[in-house]
Design a protein that fits this description.
conserved putative lor/sdh protein from methanococcus maripaludis s2 fold; 6 helices; elongated; disordered N terminus; disordered C terminus
Protein backbone atom coordinates (compact mmCIF):
# COMPACT_ATOMS: atom_id res chain seq x y z
CA UNK A 1 0.00 0.00 0.00
CA UNK A 2 2.88 2.36 0.89
CA UNK A 3 4.46 1.71 -2.51
CA UNK A 4 1.21 2.62 -4.27
CA UNK A 5 0.93 5.91 -2.36
CA UNK A 6 4.58 6.83 -3.13
CA UNK A 7 3.99 6.03 -6.80
CA UNK A 8 0.81 8.12 -6.88
CA UNK A 9 2.59 11.08 -5.21
CA UNK A 10 5.50 10.87 -7.63
CA UNK A 11 3.15 10.61 -10.59
CA UNK A 12 1.19 13.62 -9.39
CA UNK A 13 4.27 15.83 -8.95
CA UNK A 14 5.48 14.72 -12.39
CA UNK A 15 2.17 15.86 -13.89
CA UNK A 16 2.22 19.10 -11.89
CA UNK A 17 5.77 19.89 -13.01
CA UNK A 18 4.85 19.30 -16.64
CA UNK A 19 1.82 21.59 -16.22
CA UNK A 20 3.95 24.37 -14.70
CA UNK A 21 6.58 24.13 -17.42
CA UNK A 22 3.89 24.45 -20.08
CA UNK A 23 2.23 27.43 -18.38
CA UNK A 24 5.29 29.30 -17.09
CA UNK A 25 8.04 28.40 -19.53
CA UNK A 26 10.12 30.83 -21.56
CA UNK A 27 8.03 33.45 -23.22
CA UNK A 28 5.79 34.17 -20.19
CA UNK A 29 2.07 33.50 -20.06
CA UNK A 30 0.21 32.05 -23.00
CA UNK A 31 -3.37 31.05 -23.81
CA UNK A 32 -2.67 27.86 -21.92
CA UNK A 33 -2.85 29.85 -18.66
CA UNK A 34 -6.55 30.53 -19.17
CA UNK A 35 -8.72 28.99 -16.45
CA UNK A 36 -11.47 26.97 -18.10
CA UNK A 37 -13.39 26.08 -14.93
CA UNK A 38 -12.90 25.02 -11.32
CA UNK A 39 -13.18 21.41 -10.12
CA UNK A 40 -14.23 20.01 -6.74
CA UNK A 41 -11.08 18.34 -5.33
CA UNK A 42 -13.13 15.52 -3.77
CA UNK A 43 -15.54 14.99 -6.67
CA UNK A 44 -14.04 15.64 -10.13
CA UNK A 45 -17.48 15.52 -11.75
CA UNK A 46 -18.57 18.61 -9.75
CA UNK A 47 -17.35 21.81 -11.41
CA UNK A 48 -17.94 25.56 -11.21
CA UNK A 49 -17.34 28.36 -13.73
CA UNK A 50 -16.10 30.61 -10.88
CA UNK A 51 -13.90 30.02 -7.81
CA UNK A 52 -15.77 28.08 -5.13
CA UNK A 53 -15.34 25.95 -2.02
CA UNK A 54 -16.58 22.46 -1.26
CA UNK A 55 -18.62 21.45 1.80
CA UNK A 56 -15.40 21.10 3.83
CA UNK A 57 -14.21 24.59 2.96
CA UNK A 58 -11.51 23.47 0.50
CA UNK A 59 -10.89 25.55 -2.61
CA UNK A 60 -11.95 24.18 -5.97
CA UNK A 61 -8.94 23.42 -8.21
CA UNK A 62 -8.55 25.58 -11.34
CA UNK A 63 -8.38 23.64 -14.62
CA UNK A 64 -6.19 25.37 -17.22
CA UNK A 65 -6.46 25.20 -21.00
CA UNK A 66 -2.99 23.72 -21.29
CA UNK A 67 -3.81 20.87 -18.94
CA UNK A 68 -7.28 20.18 -20.28
CA UNK A 69 -7.57 18.71 -23.73
CA UNK A 70 -11.31 18.13 -23.48
CA UNK A 71 -12.62 21.27 -21.81
CA UNK A 72 -16.08 20.94 -23.29
CA UNK A 73 -16.85 17.99 -20.99
CA UNK A 74 -17.07 18.78 -17.26
CA UNK A 75 -15.08 16.46 -15.01
CA UNK A 76 -12.44 15.67 -17.64
CA UNK A 77 -8.70 15.97 -17.07
CA UNK A 78 -5.52 15.03 -18.91
CA UNK A 79 -3.58 12.18 -17.32
CA UNK A 80 -1.44 11.40 -20.37
CA UNK A 81 -1.27 8.20 -22.38
CA UNK A 82 2.17 7.32 -21.02
CA UNK A 83 1.04 7.60 -17.43
CA UNK A 84 -2.10 5.54 -18.10
CA UNK A 85 0.11 2.75 -19.43
CA UNK A 86 2.41 3.10 -16.42
CA UNK A 87 -0.50 2.83 -14.01
CA UNK A 88 -1.74 -0.25 -15.86
CA UNK A 89 -5.16 1.12 -16.73
CA UNK A 90 -7.60 -1.37 -18.25
CA UNK A 91 -10.98 -0.51 -19.73
CA UNK A 92 -14.26 -2.14 -20.74
CA UNK A 93 -17.28 -0.75 -22.63
CA UNK A 94 -20.60 -0.06 -20.96
CA UNK A 95 -23.04 -2.36 -22.71
CA UNK A 96 -26.52 -3.81 -22.45
CA UNK A 97 -26.70 -7.42 -21.32
CA UNK A 98 -29.08 -9.86 -19.68
CA UNK A 99 -28.47 -9.44 -15.97
CA UNK A 100 -28.88 -12.46 -13.71
CA UNK A 101 -28.66 -12.00 -9.95
CA UNK A 102 -27.98 -14.93 -7.62
CA UNK A 103 -29.54 -14.63 -4.17
CA UNK A 104 -27.76 -16.86 -1.69
CA UNK A 105 -29.68 -18.14 1.29
CA UNK A 106 -29.48 -20.89 3.91
CA UNK A 107 -32.42 -23.24 4.32
CA UNK A 108 -33.47 -26.48 5.93
CA UNK A 109 -35.54 -29.43 4.84
CA UNK A 110 -38.93 -28.81 6.35
CA UNK A 111 -39.93 -30.46 9.57
CA UNK A 112 -43.06 -28.45 10.25
CA UNK A 113 -45.63 -30.15 12.49
CA UNK A 114 -47.46 -26.81 12.94
CA UNK A 115 -48.16 -26.47 9.22
CA UNK A 116 -49.12 -30.16 9.04
CA UNK A 117 -51.66 -29.73 11.87
CA UNK A 118 -53.02 -26.53 10.30
CA UNK A 119 -53.53 -28.38 7.01
CA UNK A 120 -55.42 -31.10 8.90
CA UNK A 121 -57.59 -28.47 10.63
CA UNK A 122 -58.29 -26.74 7.33
CA UNK A 123 -59.36 -29.98 5.62
CA UNK A 124 -61.62 -30.82 8.58
CA UNK A 125 -63.16 -27.32 8.44
CA UNK A 126 -63.63 -27.68 4.69
CA UNK A 127 -65.45 -30.99 5.15
CA UNK A 128 -67.67 -29.51 7.89
CA UNK A 129 -68.52 -26.49 5.71
CA UNK A 130 -69.56 -28.73 2.83
CA UNK A 131 -71.79 -30.81 5.10
CA UNK A 132 -73.32 -27.66 6.60
CA UNK A 133 -74.43 -26.49 3.15
CA UNK A 134 -77.42 -28.84 3.39
CA UNK A 135 -78.23 -27.92 6.99
CA UNK A 136 -81.54 -26.27 7.80
CA UNK A 137 -79.90 -24.37 10.68
CA UNK A 138 -78.48 -21.02 9.52
CA UNK A 139 -76.29 -20.67 12.65
CA UNK A 140 -74.62 -24.01 11.99
CA UNK A 141 -73.86 -22.96 8.43
CA UNK A 142 -72.41 -19.59 9.53
CA UNK A 143 -70.25 -21.25 12.22
CA UNK A 144 -68.82 -23.75 9.72
CA UNK A 145 -68.05 -21.01 7.18
CA UNK A 146 -66.37 -18.86 9.86
CA UNK A 147 -64.20 -21.78 10.95
CA UNK A 148 -63.21 -22.44 7.33
CA UNK A 149 -62.21 -18.78 6.79
CA UNK A 150 -60.12 -18.81 9.97
CA UNK A 151 -58.35 -22.01 8.95
CA UNK A 152 -57.64 -20.66 5.48
CA UNK A 153 -56.27 -17.42 6.96
CA UNK A 154 -53.90 -19.42 9.21
CA UNK A 155 -52.55 -21.22 6.16
CA UNK A 156 -51.98 -17.88 4.40
CA UNK A 157 -50.13 -16.51 7.45
CA UNK A 158 -47.93 -19.61 7.47
CA UNK A 159 -46.89 -18.76 3.91
CA UNK A 160 -49.14 -20.84 1.64
CA UNK A 161 -50.42 -19.15 -1.49
CA UNK A 162 -53.99 -19.34 -2.71
CA UNK A 163 -52.92 -21.81 -5.41
CA UNK A 164 -51.27 -24.06 -2.81
CA UNK A 165 -54.40 -24.05 -0.67
CA UNK A 166 -56.47 -24.96 -3.74
CA UNK A 167 -54.04 -27.84 -4.39
CA UNK A 168 -54.54 -28.97 -0.78
CA UNK A 169 -58.31 -28.90 -1.41
CA UNK A 170 -57.84 -31.12 -4.45
CA UNK A 171 -55.55 -33.63 -2.71
CA UNK A 172 -57.75 -33.91 0.37
CA UNK A 173 -54.84 -34.80 2.66
CA UNK A 174 -52.02 -32.92 4.44
CA UNK A 175 -48.48 -33.02 3.10
CA UNK A 176 -46.63 -35.88 4.86
CA UNK A 177 -43.37 -34.44 3.52
CA UNK A 178 -43.64 -31.89 6.36
CA UNK A 179 -42.97 -34.72 8.82
CA UNK A 180 -41.20 -37.56 6.99
CA UNK A 181 -38.74 -38.04 4.15
CA UNK A 182 -40.68 -39.01 1.00
CA UNK A 183 -37.89 -41.34 -0.20
CA UNK A 184 -36.37 -41.68 -3.68
CA UNK A 185 -37.89 -39.41 -6.29
CA UNK A 186 -39.96 -37.63 -3.68
CA UNK A 187 -40.80 -33.95 -3.68
CA UNK A 188 -40.28 -32.07 -0.42
CA UNK A 189 -40.11 -28.62 1.11
CA UNK A 190 -36.98 -26.55 1.61
CA UNK A 191 -37.43 -23.51 3.88
CA UNK A 192 -34.93 -20.74 3.05
CA UNK A 193 -34.59 -17.35 4.74
CA UNK A 194 -34.32 -14.43 2.31
CA UNK A 195 -32.97 -11.13 3.60
CA UNK A 196 -35.17 -8.05 3.46
CA UNK A 197 -32.84 -6.36 0.95
CA UNK A 198 -33.25 -9.26 -1.51
CA UNK A 199 -37.01 -9.66 -1.19
CA UNK A 200 -37.93 -7.18 -3.97
CA UNK A 201 -36.03 -9.40 -6.42
CA UNK A 202 -37.25 -12.86 -5.37
CA UNK A 203 -40.57 -14.14 -6.70
CA UNK A 204 -42.68 -17.27 -6.85
CA UNK A 205 -41.48 -19.44 -9.74
CA UNK A 206 -37.77 -18.50 -9.51
CA UNK A 207 -35.41 -21.41 -10.09
CA UNK A 208 -33.34 -22.69 -7.18
CA UNK A 209 -30.26 -24.90 -6.90
CA UNK A 210 -29.61 -26.35 -3.44
CA UNK A 211 -26.62 -28.24 -2.05
CA UNK A 212 -25.44 -29.61 1.29
CA UNK A 213 -21.90 -29.73 2.67
CA UNK A 214 -22.60 -33.26 3.87
CA UNK A 215 -23.45 -34.34 0.29
CA UNK A 216 -20.59 -33.01 -1.89
CA UNK A 217 -21.37 -33.00 -5.61
CA UNK A 218 -25.13 -33.37 -5.14
CA UNK A 219 -27.34 -30.59 -6.50
CA UNK A 220 -31.09 -30.46 -5.89
CA UNK A 221 -33.23 -28.45 -8.31
CA UNK A 222 -36.40 -26.69 -7.31
CA UNK A 223 -38.61 -23.62 -7.59
CA UNK A 224 -40.00 -21.12 -5.11
CA UNK A 225 -43.61 -21.99 -4.31
CA UNK A 226 -44.38 -19.21 -1.83
CA UNK A 227 -42.80 -16.45 0.26
CA UNK A 228 -44.09 -15.54 3.71
CA UNK A 229 -45.95 -12.20 3.65
CA UNK A 230 -44.40 -11.07 6.97
CA UNK A 231 -40.80 -10.55 8.10
CA UNK A 232 -39.10 -12.14 11.06
CA UNK A 233 -38.40 -9.01 13.18
CA UNK A 234 -35.25 -10.51 14.73
CA UNK A 235 -33.49 -11.68 11.57
CA UNK A 236 -35.11 -9.24 9.06
CA UNK A 237 -35.80 -12.18 6.75
CA UNK A 238 -38.85 -13.74 5.15
CA UNK A 239 -39.18 -17.48 4.70
CA UNK A 240 -39.42 -18.89 1.18
CA UNK A 241 -40.92 -22.33 0.66
CA UNK A 242 -39.14 -24.18 -2.11
CA UNK A 243 -40.26 -27.47 -3.66
CA UNK A 244 -37.25 -29.62 -4.54
CA UNK A 245 -36.90 -33.12 -5.92
CA UNK A 246 -34.80 -35.69 -4.06
CA UNK A 247 -34.11 -38.19 -6.83
CA UNK A 248 -31.93 -40.48 -4.69
CA UNK A 249 -33.70 -40.12 -1.35
CA UNK A 250 -30.69 -38.49 0.35
CA UNK A 251 -32.41 -35.70 2.24
CA UNK A 252 -33.84 -35.85 5.74
CA UNK A 253 -36.04 -33.44 7.72
CA UNK A 254 -34.11 -30.60 9.37
CA UNK A 255 -31.01 -31.02 7.16
CA UNK A 256 -29.41 -27.67 6.27
CA UNK A 257 -28.79 -26.72 2.63
CA UNK A 258 -27.35 -23.74 0.79
CA UNK A 259 -29.85 -22.34 -1.71
CA UNK A 260 -28.88 -20.32 -4.79
CA UNK A 261 -31.91 -18.48 -6.19
CA UNK A 262 -31.43 -17.29 -9.78
CA UNK A 263 -33.28 -14.08 -10.59
CA UNK A 264 -33.50 -12.99 -14.24
CA UNK A 265 -33.55 -9.18 -14.21
CA UNK A 266 -33.80 -8.74 -17.98
CA UNK A 267 -31.63 -6.56 -20.20
CA UNK A 268 -29.86 -3.66 -18.46
CA UNK A 269 -27.03 -1.20 -19.22
CA UNK A 270 -24.11 -2.53 -17.19
CA UNK A 271 -20.43 -2.07 -16.36
CA UNK A 272 -18.06 -4.38 -14.45
CA UNK A 273 -18.44 -3.97 -10.70
CA UNK A 274 -14.78 -3.00 -10.33
CA UNK A 275 -15.36 0.07 -12.54
CA UNK A 276 -17.28 1.86 -9.76
CA UNK A 277 -15.47 3.94 -7.15
CA UNK A 278 -17.71 4.46 -4.12
CA UNK A 279 -16.83 7.66 -2.23
CA UNK A 280 -19.40 6.99 0.46
CA UNK A 281 -21.57 9.90 -0.69
CA UNK A 282 -21.77 9.04 -4.38
CA UNK A 283 -20.60 6.49 -6.94
CA UNK A 284 -18.14 7.57 -9.65
CA UNK A 285 -16.73 5.93 -12.77
CA UNK A 286 -13.82 7.12 -14.90
CA UNK A 287 -14.37 7.21 -18.67
CA UNK A 288 -11.38 6.89 -21.03
CA UNK A 289 -11.90 9.34 -23.91
CA UNK A 290 -8.58 8.44 -25.56
CA UNK A 291 -5.40 10.47 -25.87
CA UNK A 292 -4.86 10.38 -22.11
CA UNK A 293 -8.15 12.17 -21.35
CA UNK A 294 -10.13 10.79 -18.38
CA UNK A 295 -13.64 11.92 -17.43
CA UNK A 296 -14.94 11.50 -13.89
CA UNK A 297 -18.67 10.84 -14.00
CA UNK A 298 -21.11 10.46 -11.10
CA UNK A 299 -23.56 7.61 -11.80
CA UNK A 300 -26.75 6.19 -10.35
CA UNK A 301 -26.63 2.44 -9.94
CA UNK A 302 -29.33 -0.22 -9.96
CA UNK A 303 -29.29 -4.00 -9.62
CA UNK A 304 -26.08 -5.97 -9.19
CA UNK A 305 -24.99 -9.45 -10.17
CA UNK A 306 -21.80 -11.28 -9.20
CA UNK A 307 -19.79 -9.52 -11.93
CA UNK A 308 -21.87 -6.62 -13.24
CA UNK A 309 -23.76 -3.60 -11.96
CA UNK A 310 -26.60 -1.75 -13.66
CA UNK A 311 -26.07 1.94 -14.46
CA UNK A 312 -29.36 3.84 -14.55
CA UNK A 313 -27.96 7.34 -15.09
CA UNK A 314 -24.62 8.85 -16.06
CA UNK A 315 -23.35 6.61 -18.88
CA UNK A 316 -24.21 5.79 -22.46
CA UNK A 317 -23.80 2.45 -24.17
CA UNK A 318 -20.27 2.18 -25.57
CA UNK A 319 -18.60 4.48 -23.03
CA UNK A 320 -15.17 3.05 -22.23
CA UNK A 321 -14.88 2.84 -18.44
CA UNK A 322 -11.72 2.26 -16.42
CA UNK A 323 -11.79 -1.12 -14.64
CA UNK A 324 -8.21 -1.36 -13.38
CA UNK A 325 -6.12 1.52 -12.04
CA UNK A 326 -9.17 3.66 -11.24
CA UNK A 327 -8.21 3.88 -7.57
CA UNK A 328 -4.82 5.32 -8.50
CA UNK A 329 -6.54 7.89 -10.70
CA UNK A 330 -8.89 8.65 -7.81
CA UNK A 331 -5.97 8.90 -5.33
CA UNK A 332 -4.37 11.56 -7.53
CA UNK A 333 -7.52 13.64 -7.18
CA UNK A 334 -7.31 13.29 -3.39
CA UNK A 335 -3.63 14.25 -3.43
CA UNK A 336 -4.49 17.38 -5.40
CA UNK A 337 -7.12 18.20 -2.79
CA UNK A 338 -4.55 17.91 0.03
CA UNK A 339 -2.02 20.11 -1.81
CA UNK A 340 -4.75 22.64 -2.63
CA UNK A 341 -5.49 22.93 1.06
CA UNK A 342 -1.80 23.89 1.60
CA UNK A 343 -1.91 26.54 -1.13
CA UNK A 344 -0.03 24.32 -3.61
CA UNK A 345 -2.75 23.75 -6.19
CA UNK A 346 -0.68 25.32 -8.98
Amino acid sequence: MKTIVIFAVAAFFGLAACGRSRRHGAGGKTGQDKVLFYRDPMDPSHTSPVPAKDSMGMDFIPVYAGAQASAAEPGSFNVGEGRLQLIGVKTAPARRRDLVRTIRAVGRIAYDPELYRTQEEYLAALSAARQAQGSSLPESKKRAESLLRSSRLRLRLLGLSGAQIDALDASGRPDRGLLLSPGKGGVLWLYADIYESDLPLAAVGDAVEASAQSLPGEVFAGTISSIDPVLNPKTRTARARIRITDARGLLRPDMYLNADIRVDLGERLTVPREAVVDTGLRQVVFIDRGGGIIVARAVKLGARSDDWVEVREGLSEGDLVVTSGNFLIDSESNLKAALAGMGMSK
